[in-house]
Write a structure and sequence with these properties.
- Disulfide bonds join 37-47, 55-64, 101-111, 122-131, 168-178, 186-195.
- Keywords: Disulfide bond, EGF-like domain, Repeat, Signal.
- InterPro entries: Dev_Signal_Modulators, EGF, EGF-like_CS.
- With 201 residues, this protein is mainly beta.
- It folds into 4 domains: 36-68, Laminin; 78-127, Ribbon (Laminin), CATH 2.10.25; 136-165, Laminin (Ribbon); 168-198.
- Helices cover 10% and strands 27% of the residues.
- It has one helix spanning 10-30; strands spanning 46-47, 53-54, 59-60, 66-67, 78-81, 84-86, 91-92, 98-99, 110-114, 117-121, 126-127, 133-134, 145-148, 151-153, 158-159, 165-166, 177-180, 183-185, 190-191, 197-198.
- The chain has a two-stranded antiparallel ribbon.
- A hairpin with a 2-residue loop joins strand 13 (145-148) and strand 14.
- The longest helix has 21 residues, at 10-30.
- The N and C termini lie far apart (149 Å).
């Protein structure tokens, strides 16, 4: 049985061969890949007959000079090579999609980004750039240090929620009041370290 004119498996091969020949002719006309494109096509791009570049996978631009990242680099990141982003400070991850606070956020703080400004959102009772400082609303007096929300660490000789109470190892007598470590304020007519001495009339 004869095949119909124009049919047969040889036609697709012929068309493919003609297309390849045309492309090769263009390359020869340009003197090879990149020869007729000025500047030359970069990153393996092929210069076509109309002085435009056919870029290899992962690159784009008039001369294939720009790498492409998919997904695109986020938060102002720069694509260095296909699939590789350089992230600005405060961001990380393959596509700069993760927020990263330098040093981390302490004491339950959360690293967030507000209008591309990266900072720690602190839990209640904490403050500081990394939520490292406790807040004592009552204050810590007499050189006390706030070590946890509402909790002061007092130096020797002082106690109380705000380190405001002095400690006298020997109690003040006769209604005297401890006003500093081991220092009593005595009521008349008493005096002395523990208010034990009575003045003679």
């Amino acid at each position: 049985m004869r095949r119909r004119a124009g049919g047969g498996p040889g036609l697709p091969r012929l068309l493919l061969w003609l297309a390849l020949c045309a492309l090769c002719a263009l390359c020869r006309q340009d003197g090879g890949a990149g020869a007729a494109c000025s500047p030359r096509c970069r990153h393996g791009g092929l210069c076509l007959g109309n002085a435009t570049c056919l870029c290899s996978k992962g690159y784009e631009g008039e001369r294939c000079q720009h790498a492409t990242c998919y997904p695109k680099c986020k938060n102002g990141g720069e694509c260095l090579r296909p699939g590789k982003c350089r992230c600005p400070p405060g961001y990380g991850g393959r596509y700069c999609h993760k927020v990263s606070c330098e040093g981390g956020c302490q004491n339950g703080g959360e690293c967030i980004s507000v209008k591309r400004v990266v900072k720690c959102l602190c839990a209640s009772g904490w403050t500081g750039s990394r939520c490292q400082e406790a807040i004592c609303p009552q204050g810590c007096r007499n050189n006390g240090a706030c070590v946890a929300p509402g909790i002061c660490s007092c130096p020797a000789g002082w106690v109380g929620g705000a380190c405001h109470l002095a400690v006298c190892k020997r109690p003040c007598q006769h209604g005297g009041k401890c006003i500093a470590p081991n220092l009593c304020r005595c009521r008349l007519p008493y005096s002395g370290l523990q208010c034990t001495k009575k003045r003679k009339e």
